[in-house]
Amino acid sequence: MKAFLILLRRELALAWGNGGGPLLALAFYACVVTLLPLAAGRAPERLASLAPGIAWLALALAALLSLERLFERDFEDGALDLLALGPAPLEAVAVAKCLAHWLAAGAPLALAAPIAALALGASPHIIPLLIPCALAGGLAFSFLGGLGASLALGSKRGGLLVAVIVLPLYVPPVIFGAGALDALAGGLPWTGGLLLLLAYSTAAVALSPIAMAAACRNALD
Amino acid sequence: MLRTIRIKDLSLVRGERRLFSGLNLEIQAGQAVALTGRNGAGKTSLLRVVAGLLRPIDGAISFDGVSGELEAEVARAEGLHLVGHYDGLKSTRSAWEELLFQTLWTGGCEASARVAATKLDLDRLLDLEVRRLSAGQRRRVALARLLASPRSLWLLDEPMAPLDAGHREGFGAVMAEHLAGGGMILAAVHDPLPVPCRVVEVGG
What residue ranges define each of the domains in chain B, with the CATH number in brackets? Predict the structure, then answer.
């Protein structure tokens, strides 16, 4: 546990330092959200109906953007050897890295999501649901993205490969999360979507570290 | 604390190529072994097999502690250091931040990291970002964790290649001290090690 915290602190420092990974993700998020009215037209009612959906899409893309090099950096500079030989199993290393990514990029993005949705004209009463949805969805994005990043280790053009591996896995949380928000906006029961989203995130957090550790071992071999 | 490492009938294949087969080696507490051989003979791979990062196609490696054989996973997690070609340092962090992380991660403490830094003549470099260090200075930061968190077996891959003459001598003294304290060293080298050692040629 002590080793886990040591690693988590380092990963957070790496994510925050280094030219501001989270700030960059937030800026990207803002850009995508700003582009939408230009691309889809300015009609307020159309924007309002698109707002929750585009908030989700931008969230997924921004998470993906910052995930690509989650393992690659350590693989290239030899630090992954050190992490593999440390006191914690590689599964715990993977959890620490993804958790740090979520804390540094996913959580700030989730807190920015309501602002983006409001700016696009979504009705304010979906905000209390949007924040937990974005937090839980972001957690799934971080862990599944880590899975993609670990599978793409050592490949050239890893960024595109990560996107191709990961985007299909991002489909369920987007469906559940956007579905819950849609239902709330339309006055329908929304708890089902939220519960499914939470279940999917839990499964991602529980299962993907096993696959990430296996992928890292395979890359080192 | 490891006392003996036994490598028995080890064979390693990388891709289509058999690097070596039937390799036997035993290292006791206080001994150093220098692995020599041409480029690509499998010296680095052998070190990585001992560290558990590569899987051999055949053969076994066992680690003995004070009270008999240890489970390989435990022995590796607590008993060995691997310093490879790459120093594993993040270029945007300061040398001290990286040394401290590597030390804590391998089970040392802040005080021991300070002592190790002084011993390897790093005190003036600790505040600098890693990317501002030369290859030799970077290597010394990586080697400092050997001292900062004591472990019995050192697996070193060309440890002294980037070091200047003065620091080679200094690190030679560090290795001699480690051996005198019952440590073990397995090093892939092209130049002779500055401590008494057995020379094993890899890959014939």
Answer: 2-201 (3.40.50.300)
